[in-house]
Design brief:
605 residues; alpha/beta; Beta-Lactamase; Alpha-Beta Plaits; TIM Barrel; 3 domains; eight-stranded mixed β-barrel; five-stranded antiparallel β-sheet; 43% helix; elongated; binds ligand C2E; binds magnesium ion
């Protein structure tokens, strides 16, 4: 049994029910078929369209339409072309059109079937997406993606005279935090406007995300890049505060610039500019820096060191130096501070300033810190076993913020104490003020305290802690930062700070240690004010454990009056030891105080 409908009927239903606009035109271009979807799409009824030229072909598309029709009449189907046509009321419609030749009974092509569909919405959505991908919604600047595309293009053309400037706003986070995102957004938009105004016509300006912006400078070259970037920064600064909602905001941009390299990728150039910006910020200079080879070397060194740090403990490349502290009242040796050094296979003995921050950043500080702790306790054990004078010697170990955040710290400390049989009161752990602001610091410190170890606040006066934190966390020792001690000889302000710190420290019942004592004047000043202890190059430099052995063997305490004579004898001693060359840190030194006759005070040669 065949179907109960005819093919003709089916075709009729398809043509008249279809949501696709279907029409047929003859060789002359006159409409022969016009379905209801055509009526809806173009606004012309079948009665109006039939027998006429296609009403939707506006004068602007007549030629193009005829070309299309002739191609189809020549026997080619054209599928899915996108064209603009006109609605009866004049607005234009984006169409997807397919055209197919129709044959008569003799096989000749006499007419053309058109199938059209409105894709205006889809097109608009695509355009919006493209806009979004290419432009930043808030500022109207280019998007990161578009910027990278342009940069790629510039690199592909080997335009080595082009350069990238990367910049961000130093104080933006504060504005956002204090005044809310609405104000923050307006500030960014205004800054973007300024940035666009200060660069040249052909330069591309993008917002890379957050408060980060980038400019692709065309044709600057190595000679003029500094001048061009300076001009941009000067103009941004000179523009003065940005006014948002009646309030003035000072915007401080920092930036870095890098030239495009013939061999570099866009990633590479952006990273270089970013590194330069980071260096500009790191130096606390604000402003901007242009990436150069030296910077590159420093970064490479940093990256390499960071990578090597992980294995340095296993490879036994670390050494602990010890620096003595003395009681100011009688010159007695009171303790030592463990100070790490890295015996690097290529670079020699590195001071902690070269690598501790890297170890902090990559997390290896936990393992390194544990190693120092054990090493220091083991050494104290050795001294206690071999020198009667070491029975009350205090061992100080520095803790970094990451260690304080780590859950293993208390465990590590108590394990080291037990393993080497160290009385907890002889171990002093030093933390800097900045650590105190961190979450969880309070808990970590009270856990340590419950073990019975001493806690010291290091580099006092340089961090951000408030005086309240001194009361909140119970410390045993306060170490006055050496920058203030250094100023005792020369600066009334520094002297005032030292005096105030000492009285604060005493009022709170803390043991006070002055760091970096390196002239006898400083020593006497501190001693007269009742400072308990001193540490510094004048009294003893950090050295290998053997240097402390010598001190422990000495039968007499350090004689300060002898020390003074020695420094006077040395004549030119007015200059501070802090002026000494860097490798002073790294040289294993003989203690300056083994006996009065061997006192050595550094002199600039
Ligand atoms: P710090 O704890 O304040 O240690 C004192 C620093 O001042 C030492 O530098 C010492 O050599 C230096 N110093 C002492 N007396 C004088 C002086 O009279 N003049 C001058 N110019 N400097 C003096 P060092 O050994 O380079 O250590 C620097 C910092 O590195 C330490 O400062 C400490 O914060 C950190 N550090 C050292 N060892 C470790 C460690 O094992 N772990 C952690 N987390 N940090 C450590
Ligand atoms: Mg310290
Ligand atoms: Mg210190």
């Amino acid at each position: 049994m065949g179907p109960e409908w005819s093919v003709d009927e089916l075709l009729q239903a398809v043509i008249f029910g279809s949501p696709l606009a279907l029409y047929v035109v003859d060789e002359a271009g006159l409409v022969q078929l016009w379905n209801p979807a055509c009526e809806a799409l173009f606004g012309w009824s079948a009665a109006e369209a039939l027998g006429r030229r296609l009403p939707f072909v506006g004068p602007e598309s007549v030629v193009e339409f005829d070309r299309l029709r002739r191609r189809v009449l020549a026997g080619k189907s054209v599928v899915n072309v996108q064209r603009q046509r006109r609605h009866r009321d004049g607005h234009s419609i984006e169409l997807s059109i397919s055209t197919v030749p129709l044959h008569d009974r003799n096989g000749a092509i006499r007419s053309v079937l058109g199938v059209s569909q409105d894709v205006s919405r889809q097109k608009a959505a695509e355009a919006a997406l493209l806009r979004e991908a290419h432009f930043d919604g808030l500022t109207g600047l280019l998007s990161r993606r578009r910027f990278v595309e342009l940069l790629d293009r510039s690199l592909a053309r080997r335009r080595c005279r082009d350069a990238v400037v990367y910049l961000d706003l130093d104080n933006f986070k504060d504005v956002n935090d204090t005044h809310g995102h609405g104000i923050g957004d307006q500030l960014l938009a205004q800054f973007a406007e300024r940035l666009r105004a200060v660069v040249r016509e052909g330069d591309a300006v993008a917002r890379m995300g957050g408060d980060e912006f980038a400019v692709l400078l065309r044709e600057v070259g190595p000679r003029t890049i500094h001048r061009v970037v300076r001009r941009i920064f000067d103009a941004l600064v000179e523009a003065g505060p940005v006014v948002v909602g009646g309030r003035e905001f000072v915007v401080r941009p920092s930036g870095g610039a890098a030239l495009c390299r013939p061999t570099g990728s866009s990633q590479h150039v952006l990273r270089s500019a970013d590194v330069a910006m980071y260096e500009a910020k790191r130096g606390g200079r604000g402003g901007f820096l242009v990436f150069d080879q030296l910077m590159q070397d420093a970064v490479v060194e940093r990256v390499e060191l960071e990578a090597q740090l992980g294995q340095a403990v296993d490879r036994q490349q670390f050494v602990v130096f010890y620096q003595p502290t003395f009681a100011l009242v009688d010159g007695r040796l009171t303790g030592v501070e463990a100070l790490i050094r890295w015996q690097h296979p290529d670079l020699g003995l590195l001071p902690p300033g070269r690598f501790i921050h890297l170890a902090e950043a990559n997390g290896s500080i936990i393992e390194i810190g544990r190693w120092v702790l054990r090493q220091a306790c083991a050494q104290l054990r050795v001294w206690q076993d071999t020198h009667p004078a070491a029975s009350s010697l205090r061992m100080s170990v520095n803790l970094s913020p990451a260690q304080l955040r780590s859950t293993e710290l208390t465990c590590d400390v108590s394990e080291a104490l037990q393993r080497f049989g160290i009385e907890p009161r002889l171990l002093q752990l030093e933390v800097t003020e900045t650590v105190l602001a961190a979450d969880g610091a309070s808990e970590a410190l009270s856990q340590l305290r419950s073990l019975g170890v001493r806690l010291a606040i290091d580099d006092f006066g340089t961090g951000y802690s408030s005086l309240t934190s001194l009361r909140r966390f119970t410390f045993d020792t306060l170490k006055i930062d050496r920058s203030f001690v250094a100023g005792i000889d020369t600066s009334t302000e520094d002297r005032a700070i030292v005096v105030a710190t000492l009285s604060l420290s005493h009022a709170l019942g803390l043991q006070t240690v002055a760091e970096g004592v390196n002239t006898d004047g400083q020593r006497r000043f501190l001693s007269d004010l009742g400072c308990d202890e001193a540490q510094g190059f004048l009294l003893g430099r950090p050295g290998a454990a053997a240097s402390i052995d010598a001190l422990l063997e000495a039968t007499e305490p350090l004689r300060f009056n002898e020390l003074r004579r020695a420094s006077i004898d040395a004549g030119t001693l007015r200059l501070g030891v802090s002026d000494a060359p860097l490798d002073d840190h790294t040289r294993c030194s003989t203690p300056s105080s083994v006996s009065p006759t061997r006192v050595r005070v550094p002199v600039r040669s």
